[in-house]
Every structure is written in structure tokens, then in C-alpha cells.
Amino acid sequence: MKAFQILLLLLVFGLTSIAQKKEVKLNNNPIGVFDSGTGGLTVLEAMLTLDAFNNITGKPGADGKLDFAGEYYQYLADQANMPYGNYAAEHKTDLLKEHILKNMNFFLQQKFVTKENESWISQKKMPVKMIILACNTATAYALPEVKKFSQSFSNANFPVVGVIEAGSKAALDYQKKQQGTIGVFATAGTVASNGYPLTLNAMAKSYGLNNLSIVSQGGVGLAESIDRDWSYYIDSAKTPRKGYKGPSYKNENYPIDTALLEMYHFNKSYNQLLCEFDDKGTCTDVQINEPANYVRYHLVSLLEKMRNNKTAPNAPPMNTLILGCTHYPYMKDTIQKVLIELYNYQKNGNYRYRNVLANYVQLIDPAVETAKAAYVVLHQLQLKNTLLSNKNIDLSSQFFIAIPNTSLAEASLQPDGWFTYQYKYGRVAGAEKQYVQYVPFDTKNVSLATYDRFKKILPHVYKKLSGAVIGLK
Description:
Number of helices: 16
Radius of gyration: 22 Å
Low-confidence stretches: 12-22
Largest sheet: 6 strands, mixed
Strand content: 15-25%
Mean pLDDT: 91
Number of strands: 16
Number of domains: 2
CATH architecture of the largest domain: 3-Layer(aba) Sandwich
Shape: globular
Strand order of the largest sheet: 6-5-1-2-15-16
Structural class: alpha/beta
């Protein structure tokens, strides 16, 4: 029996004992929103601002009232174990599923911890009433297991909503208007799972669409740099360093092609691109050190893949791009800007990418469609928090993050306090170890620069964060 299946059985047994096989009424409990990092907050923002349904009938159509009014939330970022996209490449998808199920167990339990004087102090919390898997990689690899696990919490219908079907639906809605190639821009793990192409093709028939053209690009380093992962981005770095895992001249899996430097058009200011020089002053290697440069690298790589596609040389231009990682909407403006630049790029009077790139590309952010799907489930299963909305009470939302369990002697940490790459992906499933502790967001485990990004891009989430995180205004 596989290790993650053993873990599933152990966790299911524990939760069944807690529920004592009695139906648990969860209406007044919070909604759980999960991601490997902070990207899933884009889904929470969509939920906080959604007005797409009549709140009395549940039918589509805005009624001037927020659809999730009266609800409150628990958000969890598995920061210690991210990026999830690398587990497939390291042949550790069993370990990934184990992490995901442990995170689901946290949602369904009634405690978290805080650290006081080097000791972990247990605190109480509510279990959640539904889970939003606001993580494409987690949805791709573990949605069936999460659903099975969550159903064991009680005899009540316990819903789990994933992002891949929602994103696919939005992409196909646009394809009905004008069919072209669908680009899937996601983590390497999500791309390796083939989750989006399988879902898109399975749903296409109901849309009257045939012979979909789909191209995928694994965005190694982008989500990680957004969450300031040491292996991919250090804002204070001035020179190339050991331990860097992103694209470079020397990275065989994700090489920076010197012949494409003009197309990448990297921003070199403020150490956003780091060069390694030889004794003659020649740049012999480069390291990307800023999210926008990761965007540039991967979009050029995607279009070059289409240009060199010998199996489908007549594929239509890409007119739809699914942002298949919840971190990527943070870079939506940059992605749109770079696509326009590449559409207009020419040399010697020849446009390099116009045969593979449409003049307008519809960016698909699965967040809104996921929020809609969550509302439909909430209404159908009669899980609305009517008690709270009737009393006009807005309970405080909570924001949790998984950090390394420093009580575990074997834990190997980077200078920034997070797991080293070697330790993170060197672990094996089934070890029955508590690798992480679940603690509230603070200004140390999430940087002030990251909170500033939330304030600008996710104002409704930031408002809730400012009430939950000490030191934020």
C-alpha cells in the first residue's frame, strides 16, 4: 500500500472518531481556502467581491448583494513545503499528496499553535465547513483523495472545490467565441500532471468544440519568486549564487538561450538579472532575480515551442492563456504587456511571433470561476451562514502558514529559515513525521513587501489581513 494511502486511512480513522459518525451541522463554520503559498489569496479576493447570483434563489444574476456576505474564512499557505510544482520532477508525488492531506487535516481539526519563549503553545480554532483547493497543483494531483478524506469528517455532505475545472470552463467559454490555441501557463507540476489538457478535452464536447489546440509551459521560478523563495529570488542578491534553481545558461532543463536574449528583453536594472563574469569581464552565466523576468523567460519559451512544433505546424495562434497557478494573476498586467511586446517584435521587417500569437490574448484567471463554483455548492448544500448574516455579524477570518518545525532535529534550513531544497525534496512519504507547524501569518513569516503587494492588488483580502496580523494597518 502506498504511503499516502496509509496516511489517508490513519487520518480518516482519527476524524471519524472525532465526528463519532454523527452528522455535523457546519453552516456557522468558516470556509477553508488552501494554497501552497499566498497565490490562493487571489481566489479569496474573488469570493469577497463576488456578486454573480441572486442570494435568495441562488440563480445566476447579480442582485447588488455580495454572494458570500456573512461568511468568514480560514486561509492556509503551505509555505514550508512549496513549491509544489517541483515534486513531480523529483519523483515525489506521493510525498506531495501526503503534505496536502496533512493540510486538509489541519482544516478539519480544532487547533493551531503559536510560539512563545521557544515553546509551541496550542490554540483553539473552528474546523471548516468546505474547502476551496485554490492550488492548481494540489487539485491536479490530489483532488480525489482530498474529497474522500474530507467526506470522512462527518456524514454531512462536505464539499471540496478545485480550480482546474473552473479555469477550463472559462477558457472554453472564450473559445466558443473565437477558436485558437489555448495556452496553459502553470507550475511544472501542474503541467506534468496533464490536468488542464485532460479537463479541457473532456469538457470540450459539451461546448461543441473539437480538435482543441493546447500548448503548456511550466513556469519554474515564477510562483517561487513571487513568494520570495530563496532558491529562486533574493532581493538583496547582487551576484550569482550557489543554490539557485531557476533558468540560467547552465541549467539543462530550463536553459536561457543566448540566441533569444533580444526576445527575452530582460530588465537588468536593480540586480533583476545577475551575471557571472570571467576574468575577461565576459558574462558566462546569468540568473533571473525578479518575477517579471521569469514571466519574460517563460512566455518567450512558450512561443518558441509553438514556432518549433513539428507535430502541429499549422496550429492556430494562441488567443487564450490560462493562468494555471494562483500566483500568476499577481503578474497579470506584466503578462499582458509582454505578450503585446512579443506580438509586435520584429527584426529585419519580419514579425517573429505573429503566426503563433493572436493580436489579443484572453487571460483566464480561474479565481472568479472558482468563486462562482464555490457559491453554487454553498447554496445547493444549504451551507450558508444564515445565523451570522441574520445577525449581521462578521467573524474575523484567520490566516495560517506552515513553517518548518524546528523541534525536528533533522530539519535542514536555509539562511532565510525555510527548508533547504535538498531536504525538502529529499524526504520520503510515510515517515510519519511532523515536518511543519501551523501558525498565524505575521510580519516575519510573510514579508512586508508581500503585504504591500496584497494592499495594492487584493484590497479586500488586505483589509481582513490588517485585522488579523499584528503590525499591519
